[in-house]
Amino acid sequence: AQSVTQLGSHVSVSEGALVLLRCNYSSSVPPYLFWYVQYPNQGLQLLLKYTSAATLVKGINGFEAEFKKSETSFHLTKPSAHMSDAAEYFCAVSELAGSEKLVFGKGTKLTVNP
Amino acid sequence: EAGVVQSPRYKIIEKKQPVAFWCNPISGHNTLYWYLQNLGQGPELLIRYENEEAVDDSQLPKDRFSAERLKGVDSTLKIQPAELGDSAVYLCASSLGGGQNTEAFFGQGTRLTVV
């Protein structure tokens, strides 16, 4: 079975500061990993995904994530937070490269302070 | 291009009443998903369709939940009768599917409150 643990249900940063959202996974097969963002009253939007091509994955809006097999982690980072980054972020794992068998974490709510 | 459209956006019903949610996926998307998102949790898959066939409904509570996707386009998710614990956001998503490495696009969801 696959699972995802997101450390910290709430993260607060100042505008311009580094954003770091943590995700650890458990998988019995080589995983595919995803980060989604959910703005208030909106559906989820794919930020980026790891499909074994490269361990450092760049996504939209300046976000990137690094797959570290030894640490079973896929943390999401952004060098400089913007007010518009305030949202909830979900890490997900799958045994497939597509969207058919996504298992989501509980999410991390990011607050950006002026 | 229109995204995934869900209606209604909000629904309040009394317990033991029936309720239905509707989803119109992105045109051309063969795969359709219904997810349940409880407060403070990530989405959990209820059912996945490939065209009109339900290929994964293992997490759908079949005693009270049902779904259909007639003609492989729009889909309806029904709860009968609703319980207090069904209060949640119900998300619909669609993707090209067919075994391709494709992204799922999500609708805005229907927020159900059972009182």
Short description:
The complex is a heterodimer of chains A (114) and B (115). With 114 residues, chain A is mostly beta strands.
Description of the structure:
The complex is a heterodimer of chains A (114) and B (115). Chain A has 114 residues and is an all-beta fold. Chain A is built from no helices and 11 strands. Chain A has strands spanning 3-7, 10-14, 19-26, 32-38, 44-50, 56-58, 64-68, 73-78, 87-94, 103-104, 108-113. In chain A, the strands form 2 sheets. In chain A, strands 2, 4, 5, 9, 10 and 11 form a 6-stranded mixed sheet that branches. A 5-stranded antiparallel sheet of chain A has the order 1-3-8-7-6, with no helix packed on it. The mean pLDDT of chain B is 93. By secondary structure, chain B is mainly β. Chain B is 0% helix and 48% strand. Chain B is globular. In chain B, strand 4 (31-37) and strand 5 (44-50) form a beta hairpin. In chain B, strands 2, 4, 5, 6, 9, 10 and 11 form a 7-stranded mixed sheet that branches. Chain A binds chain B through residues 4, 9, 41-46, 51, 90, 92, 97-102, 104-107, and chain B through 3-4, 31, 33, 40-45, 48, 56, 91, 93, 95, 97, 99-109.
